[in-house]
Amino acid sequence: TTTTNNNNNDDGDDSWKYSANRLFKAHANPQGYVLLTSVNFHYRTFLLNLWCNLERIGSSYQLVIAAMDNDVYEWGVRYGLPMFKPAGMEMRPSHFTEKELKYGTREYRKVTKFKTHAVVQVLRAGYSVLYTDVDIVWFKDPFRAMKPYLTNSYTGIAIQSDAVLHIGSTPTKVAANHRLCSGLYVAPNTSLVIQAFEDIIVHAARSTGTEQHSFVDVLCKERSTDTSCTYRPENNSSMHLVIDVLDRTTFVGGGVYTDKTQEKDTIFDIGREAFMKYTHTSVYTAHNNYIIGSSPKMTRQIKRGWWFLNDQGGCHYPTSKKKKPTQPQQQTTTTTRILK
Fold first, then answer.
1. Which of 143, 148, 227, 236 is nearest to 191 (CA)?
2. 157: how many CB neighbours lie within 10 A of its CB?
C-alpha cells in the first residue's frame, strides 16, 4: 500500500517517489516535453478516461497529473498514478460539491486558476509543456498532433480557440483569437513563455472572471490576424511572443457547429468521420466543452463511443488491434481497481 507524504506540497523533496521533479524527469519525452493535465476529485473518472484514451494511441507514459485538491492527490498516489501537488498552492480537501464546481461558479473559477501554477512549475523545472484538459478526446498521439509546435525552433505558444464557429452553407465565425481555450496548448520552456504564464497568474488573481479571460487579456492584447496574437511583457515591450491559435476544424471544441442551428450538429453529435467529410479536414482532438456538468459530459462521450473506461474501472481496447500498455505493468493494472 502506498503511503502519501503529509507535506503540503512535495516539490522540494526529491526522495519522495511522487515529487514533481522526479515525475517530470521520468515522464518527459526526449525533447523535454511533459504531457500535463490537472484534475480535482470530482473529475477523476474523466482523468481515467483520458488515461485509457492515451493508452489506445500509445501516449500514456508521458502523462503527468497536477492534483487540484488533497482528496484527488491521495486517491491518485494510492493507485500509483504519476500525480503531484503544485508548488505554492494551498492544498485542501475537496470540500466543494460537484454542483459548486460547475462551470462559471465562483468555486470553479478559483480552482481552475490553479492549473497555470502547475504549468509554471514544470517550466521552471526546465521542461516544456503540452497541456490537455481531462475532457479532451485525442484521436492522434498528442506529440504527433502538435509536432509543428514541438520543434526546437518554435518559441511561441500554440493554443486552442474557444470561439464559436459555424461551418454551414453560409459560414459565420468569431475570430479565433477573440476567445482562447486554456484547456489545450503548447508552452515551450523559454524565459518569455514563463513570463507570459506568470503574468496570467497575476492577472487571474486580480480578476473575478475565469482563467480563460486572463489568457485572452494577457496573451492577445495585440491581435496580428484572426488566428494569431502578440504578447509583450509590460516591463519590456521591445520583446514579443507570437501566439498561434490552433485550427478549429482540426482541434475541435464544443462551440464548432456544422450548421447554424446549434442543435445536434457538433462533432459529438455527428461523429469524427462525418465531421471530417463535411469540413475536408483531419481531426486530432474533440474538446467536450460548451456543456455544463460532468454527467452531461460523460453521457455525450458515451453516446459517441468516446468513453474508454469500462464498468470495472479498466480500459476498453480496440478489438481489432490491441495496443500494449505503455506504462509499467504494475502501474497500469492498478487503474482497473481505482473506481471500486
1. 236
2. 26
